[in-house]
Design brief:
Blueprint (H helix, E strand, L loop, with lengths): L6 E5 L3 H7 L4 H22 L3 E8 L7 H24 L2 E6 L8 H13 L6 E9 L1 H14 L9 H5 L12 E4 L18 E4 L9 H13 L10
Parallel strand pairs: 1-2, 1-5, 2-4, 3-4, 5-6
Helix pairs in contact: 1-2, 2-3, 2-7, 3-4
Bound molecules: 3-methylbut-3-enyl trihydrogen diphosphate (IPE) (2 copies) and magnesium ion.
Amino acid sequence: MRCIPRHVGVVMDGNGRWATRRGLARTEGHGAGEEALVDTAYGALAVGVRALTVYAFSTENWRRPVDEVRYLMNFNRGLLERRQHELHAEGVRITFSGRRDWRVPRSVLRRMDDAATLTKNNQVMTLNIAFNYGGRAEIVDAVKRLVEERVPASKIDEKAIRERLYHPELPDPDLVVRTSGEFRTSNFLLWEMAYSELVFTDVLWPDFRREDLYGAIEEYQQRERRFGGVDS
Ligand code: IPE
Ligand code: IPE
Ligand code: MG
């Protein structure tokens, strides 16, 4: 069997455009993204992906209109309420990457903690939700911890930083997919993506399904990963 990526990252983009094209409010696009997320997660589970990190809300998304931000906060809380039990039944461990700052409502943090606690011993797949996540913020937070722990400069190397990222137990993503035809990373997994294979698709996130994930995995399987070396 061809190699299945152990860890896949997904920038779930294009919800607003999906809605606008239908004459709907942008928030309807976010709502329609739930089915895409659930189908993608089950598709990943079915082919043996061990970790799926999905970008749900970036540290830059606070710049959006307050109503949209409020919708996204409530939506993500509702999504966990609606889906955590079925994901738990499938053996999915739910984790979060991002900052728990004052802007995230307490009720959302509580729901996140509940989902993480409920599923913490599951081992089939990790669904890591990047929420109030920024790749630069993650590196800053790792550096803060090094300083707080008084780690001397002579002991600071890549391993020391890596160990202080939000989820050091997850392998770096082998594959990162971005939907909606945008060719940028938008501050996703900066450190972890150093050697990821990138796949871009024009599909808007609410239309994305497991078949699209499998298409991206097939593209990944054609790639030759060198990690700076020469062909083996
Ligand atoms: C992605 O869809 C979802 C979030 C960023 C929360 P967008 O809302 O960015 O959709 P577009 O890019 O405006 O179409
Ligand atoms: C990236 O999408 C963030 C998420 C998918 C959560 P954005 O739509 O926020 O990114 P930009 O603004 O187009 O770079
Ligand atoms: Mg977008």
